[in-house]
Amino acid sequence: MTEEAAHRLAIYDMDKTITVAPTWTRFLIGATRAHAPWRLALLPLAGLAIGGYGLRLINRARLKQVTQRLLLGGSIARRDADILAVRFADRVVADGLFAGARARIEADRAAGYRLVMATASYDFYVTAIAQRLSFDAVIATGSRLTEDGRVRAVIDGENCYGPAKLRMIQSWLAVQGIDRSETQIRFYSDHVSDAPTLDWADEPFAVHPSPALRALAIIRGWPILDW
Q1: Among residues 188, 187, 184, 186, which one has the least CA distance to residue 227?
Q2: Residue 43 CB neighbours (<10 A)
Q3: What is the value of pTM for the model shown?
């Protein structure tokens, strides 16, 4: 794809690509402390779930659902979820972002790229972070809602991770009416799980990559950025 492409997209992973640290555990504990502090007593059970993931007894999607159910309950009012998300987003944007990520985001915007955040984190709190960084769109793991709009501890659709992230990006393109063959796409990620999307992008960037991604980037000739 050339610079004369009809569309230009700069797609960013979030955790440890834009943010200095992963966000889910930090959000979950902070939200629990503010919303239902008594549930912090269930942290050891959440730790067992994490151990189960480490032993490959459960997958990432199941781990997210179990930890959310333990610490925030089976569902949470949308208004409460939004309040918690806004407070968390303000903290992340204040002190949890790589300065180099901010600079690159602004450079892509100035170059005419539409900014898209594509992350495995839940959209109910990611959206507030993306809005503060003036992203144009968010592709993230969804949550099922109850009939009255409460956010359930159940994933809606796929966990936006690995090959599923690429499928969700492609579905988003289709919904937006964007022809891939007419689109110049940059993609930024820190983790090897995003290899399918890096392969698919016109301009893949490995950002302060994990060891496995660094090795793959060297083999594939992908630029390595350190923010």
Answers
A1: 188
A2: 15
A3: 0.95
Q: Left (φ > 0), alpha (ψ -120 to 50) or beta: where does 21 sit?
A: beta
**Residue 95 CB neighbours (<10 A):** 8
DSSP structural state of residue 177: T
Report the amino acid identity of residue 195: A
Q: Where along the chain do its domains lie?
A: 7-225
Four-way CATH pick for 7-225: 3.30.70.20, 3.40.50.1000, 3.30.1850.10, 3.90.580.10: 3.40.50.1000
For the stretch 132-174, pLDDT in tens is 999 999 999 999 999 999 999 999 999 999 999 999 999 999 9
- 32 and 40 in contact (C-beta within 8 Å)? yes
Whether 189 and 13 have beta carbons less than 8 Å apart is answered as: yes
